[in-house]
Amino acid sequence: MASPRLKVIRLGLRLATAISPQLGGKLACRVFFTTESRNPKGTKARAVFAAGNTVLARAAKVPVAVPGGMVMTYAFPAPSGAGAPKVLVIHGWGSAGAYLSFMGEGLAAAGARAVVLDLPGHGLSSGRTLDVRLAAEAIATTSRHYGGFDAIVAHSFGGAAAIAAVSGLFGGIAPVATKRLGIIGAPSRLDFIFADVARALHLTEAAHQGMLAEAERRTGIHPDGFDGVALVRALSLPVMVLHAEDDKEVPAEHARRYAGLRPDVEVVWANGLGHRRIVSDPGVIAGIAGFVLEQDAAR
Questions:
Q1: Where does residue 190 rank: exposed (0-12), middle (13-18), buried (19+ CB within 10 A)?
Q2: Which sign, positive or negative, has the C-alpha torsion 101, 103, 104, 106?
Q3: CA 10 centroid distance within chain
Q4: pLDDT one-digit tens code per residue, 38-90
Q5: Residue 199 burial (C-beta neighbours within 10 Å; 0-12, 13-18, 19+)
Q6: What's the confidence (pLDDT) of residue 131?
Q7: From CA 107, how far away is CA 289, in angstroms rounded?
Q8: What is the DSSP string of 118-149?
Q9: Order of strands across the sheet with 86-90?
Q10: H/E run at residue 184
């Protein structure tokens, strides 16, 4: 059953679309890109968030200035000190660094200097909106602040943003240099997300197209134009694509598209862990650590 808030949004968009499908699409895009409450919903989510924040409390909070605001980062010191590889860890849409805290701490325990990032509009970062361009810009700025990263590990929407950042997809944002890339439960295309949003908001086809056009105006690329497989194919670095076949938010087909792409692009299945539990699973963290730190024995 739709929430009262969603019903109001649908009504407003229906009225706006009656005036102009372009207006309806523009407003729908604004609704989509506006981040929701940062307070977790439900007892289970609150417990996970609290546990994650407890872990983040053991890291150093380092704010990083970005155009128009600030993103918060959390730096975990590596046992091996300043010479250890640096790894950037990125969460997904509607999430926060707290949900990737176990990944950050696990990578640090394995020997990395791990930095967990709160994307704009999430966690302790400023802002109320997020799109793939803003995310890529935050990743690029964070990379410059820390002097670059040897590896990037990103979950869900963060994985798509990481691919965009590393590939230099957006004009005006220099490609982020890194040696290894790990993406977990990430979409290989963005158009299906916009289609889901259009269905949830009960948009007409004309309003749906208007939303896509507005997204292109705001980000510089049409959602149909983002293809993670094509972008990864053009990269010259090892990539691990880790996914669960029971992921109900990002279908497994997104990971299967990478199979056989290149010898150094590996698809790894973590079945039974769904979309969210996968990022805090000890076995997954060990596998990611082995990959980004090139420790074959840990894989």
A1: buried
A2: positive
A3: 27
A4: 888 889 889 999 999 999 999 999 999 999 899 999 999 888 777 889 999 99
A5: exposed
A6: 97
A7: 6
A8: PPTTSTT---SB--HHHHHHHHHHHHHHTT--
A9: 60-66, 69-76, 113-117, 86-90, 151-155, 180-184, 239-243, 265-269
A10: strand 180-184
Could you give the CA distance from residue 266 to residue 93 in angstroms, rounded to a whole number?
A: 24
Q: What share of the chain is helix, strand, coil (3-state, %, to 5)?
A: 45, 15, 40
CA distance 190 to 174: 21
CA 145 – CA 64 distance, rounded (Å): 7
Least Cα distance to 91 among 171, 35, 43 occurs for 35
Amino acid sitting at position 245: E
R_g of the chain, CA atoms, integer Å: 19
Q: In this model, does residue 299 exceed pLDDT 60?
A: no
Q: Which of 31, 162, 43, 144 is nearest to 100 (CA)?
A: 162
Q: Note the pLDDT tens digit of each residue in 96-120.
A: 999 999 999 999 999 999 999 999 9
How far apart (Å, rounded) are the C-alpha atoms in residues 129 and 151?
26
Q: Is the CB of residue 238 less than 8 Å from the CB of residue 181?
A: yes
CA distances (Å), origin 54, targets 49, 57, 60, 188: 9, 5, 12, 32
On average, the pLDDT of the chain sits at: 94
User: If you search the block for the tokens 């060990």, which residue do you land on?
Assistant: 286
Return the pLDDT at 296: 38
Tell me the whole-structure pTM to 2 decimals: 0.94
What is the DSSP secondary structure assignment for residue 224, as one 8-state letter? G
CB neighbours of residue 203 within 10 Å: 24
Closest to 69 (Cα-Cα) out of 145, 123, 142, 127? 127
Query: pLDDT at residue 288 above 90?
Result: yes
Q: Are 285 and 107 in contact (CB under 8 A)?
A: yes
